[in-house]
Amino acid sequence: SCMACGVLEAARQVHDAGKTTEAPTPKPMAAVMQKSLYSPPEVLSVSLKRFERVGDTSEKIATPVAFLPTLDLAPYVMPPAAGPAPRTVYRLVSVVNHHGASLARGHFTADAVEAGTAGKGPWWNFSDAEVVPAGAANFAEAYMFTYVRDGDDEAELRQRVRSGSGRGAYC
What pTM did the predictor assign? Predict the structure, then answer.
């Protein structure tokens, strides 16, 4: 299971679902569960559930989503037993968008920040036929977000991810 997904989906969840206490007179109860990361990943990929099954078809969930250019996972990371606290601040480096009404009909595009700019450089929009300056990331129909841990060497990280040796949480 992907612990990072659980943290970002709902760091705190209330479960009641008809559970009862074991007291002589059963009463509904609520429990709070908190999920924590043991070690924050170098790359954090967050995929949103944008489609739901309706009968024999899928429909797009068009709820607007606002994501920040930086995330700090410190409240969700367990403190280390010894040594310095891990870096927990992430910067957004790419967004995948789905344009269209359903999974069967639509078009995927991506916006990504220029590599080597520590997340501050120009954004580019990638589509089937062209790559054009984007000005900023497009969140209107966001489907997937990729964050990179702040302070990591981008060139080294790209090489490790390509070789499969990077530590990431892919949701």
Answer: 0.70
